[in-house]
Amino acid sequence: MTGYDDVYRNGTAPWEIGRPQPGLDLEITGPRVLDLGCGSGEVSLELARRGHQVTGVDISAVAIGQARAKAAAEGLTVDFRVGDARSARLGRFDAIVDSGLLHSLHRYGEAQDYLDLLPQLAAPGGSLTVLAISAAGAHGWGLTEEQLRAAFAAPTWTGVTVEPAEVVSVDGPLPGFLLKATRTAI
Ligand SMILES: C[S@@+](CC[C@H](N)C(=O)[O-])C[C@H]1O[C@@H](n2cnc3c(N)ncnc32)[C@H](O)[C@@H]1O
């Protein structure tokens, strides 16, 4: 059981907006997609609707239970798994999506193992999409553009773009960044 279980069970997770974050770009290429920190599955489900083969991983068993129930209700197939994204050795994916996980790990000083593992989860040429809250936001614990660019640098990552993006919560929008990168063949 995690603290995340509580907010999912109680329906008090502020990021639960009933749809994928509008600041995400889900026009991604490749059949196999990994949604890390998938929560109750809104991003995974949208990608499955678009025809991708989706694996969703979250540390909260309650969130994964909710995600599985949504998939079943819609007749969608998604491989939802309870697991820690910092040690999720699941093979390589054509695309990886992180909607709010990196900033959550960064907040508690737990991001480094995750950042070290990500290159092993992306196929050569595979894409990475990260939506993260900015340190400029009211909470102060988010990421700066410099931190994001340092975390996804050459030679492991290429074609890195970092654009301002809103992260929506039930309390309103927060400033954030949308990062896109491509895994090199190295
Ligand atoms: C801000 S929420 C975002 C959820 C979802 N991606 C979304 O956009 O609604 C962060 C999620 O990361 C999950 N999480 C936190 N630490 C994790 C870890 N070490 N491994 C996997 N998931 C984790 C939480 O349970 C939570 O569902």
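^ S-adenosylmethionine complex. Residues 4, 15, 21, 37-39, 42-43, 57-60, 63, 84-86, 99-101, 104-105 surround S-adenosylmethionine (CB under 6 Å). The first helix runs from residue 3 to 10.
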